[in-house]
Structures are given as structure tokens and as C-alpha cells.
Design goal:
Blueprint (H helix, E strand, L loop, with lengths): L8 E2 L5 E2 L11 H9 L14 H11 L5 H9 L4 H4 L4 H4 L5 H15 L7 H22 L24 H16 L1
Antiparallel strand pairs: 1-2
């Protein structure tokens, strides 16, 4: 029998994934889309449901001036969260090996989806887009007003009046991923 580190989690499609021993063969785009579409940003503290899948679609959109590969990195930059959850940044930074676990999962995702690991400059572009979105989303989705001075203007706005259902966010994420990965 195969000896694996840790116990597996059950995935959206009914598969098994070992977060402490990730293997590309066990990564499924449908699991990533399904999980991220059901995961609310900001630890659920938004004024409306706003999924990590929606956020990821906006990050890819922010990278429209880059090639499709960088847009794919943007779309999938939080794919590891499909297997370990969306932990808010202030908490994540204090969880020791958590970021290393998430990075190993992310490496398995890149390989499974046929993407080389991003270069430093590609990843910097993705993280810059992610940071812009973080401030923009926080300003519009949190109620404390503390982000107003940091929120950049984007070429579009979040459609705050029409929250995407998890099934709509999942479908949009899958469509965009397939268009970028084909």
C-alpha cells in the first residue's frame, strides 16, 4: 500500500487529495473551481458573498496586458486554497509551515495543468495585481472604510449589485481556465 504523509481530504468531484503530499495526478481543475467558488473572501467578513473564484477571475482580468500564460497564473494564483482553505493574510503569515504547504500544492497544480512554474517577474506581476484587487475589494466589500485611501481605481468595478452564485462563479472560472490553458 502507498504510504502518504497525512490524511486525504475529499474533493468537490469526490476524489481524494493529500495536502501534505500533493501529487499532480490528483489535481483536478473542477475541484479547484468548485472549492474556490464556494469559498468566501476575507474569511467570510464581506458585506455580500464574494468568492475566491470571482476574485481570481478579476486578478486574471487585471493581467490583460500580459500574455495568456500570466493571465492563467493570475486565475490560478489561489488554487492551493482549494485544498487548504482561504486563510486571511494576517493569520497565514503566522502559521509557520502553512505557506510552504500551500507552495507545494501550487507546484503540483502548475504541473498538473501543464504550466511551467512562473518566473520571478511573472509572479511579481500576479502578486501586484492581487494586491491591487485586495485593496479594491476591501474598500467595496468590507464596511469599515479603512481601505479607502489605499484602494486603486481599476478599469472596471466589481459588480457589487449582482453577486455570483457559487455555480455561476464555478462555471465562469472553468470557462476562463479552459480558454487560457488550451
Amino acid at each position: 500500500m502507498d504510504s502518504r504523509e497525512g490524511k486525504p481530504i475529499e474533493t468537490f468531484t469526490g476524489g481524494r487529495f493529500y495536502p501534505f503530499d500533493p501529487r499532480p495526478a490528483e489535481v483536478r481543475l473542477e475541484d479547484i473551481a468548485g472549492s474556490l467558488a464556494h469559498t468566501c473572501r476575507f474569511g467570510g467578513h464581506c458585506q455580500r458573498f464574494y468568492s475566491v473564484a470571482e476574485h481570481s477571475l478579476y486578478v486574471a482580468r487585471e493581467l490583460a496586458d500580459h500574455g495568456e500564460r500570466v493571465q492563467a497564473y493570475g486565475l490560478l494564483h489561489d488554487a492551493g486554497e482549494a485544498y487548504v482553505g482561504d486563510v486571511p493574510r494576517p493569520v497565514k503569515s503566522r502559521l509557520g509551515d502553512f505557506e510552504a504547504v500551500e507552495a507545494r500544492i501550487q507546484d503540483a497544480v502548475w504541473e498538473a495543468l501543464g504550466l511551467p512554474a512562473p518566473t520571478e517577474s511573472e509572479w511579481e506581476a500576479v502578486m501586484a495585481a492581487d494586491d491591487r484587487l485586495l485593496a479594491h475589494e476591501a474598500d467595496r466589500l468590507l464596511d469599515d472604510g479603512s481601505w479607502a485611501t489605499e484602494a486603486p481605481e481599476l478599469r472596471y468595478d466589481l459588480d457589487a449589485s449582482v453577486p455570483a452564485s457559487p455555480s455561476d462563479a464555478r462555471a465562469a472560472f472553468l470557462d476562463r481556465a479552459r480558454s487560457l490553458l488550451d
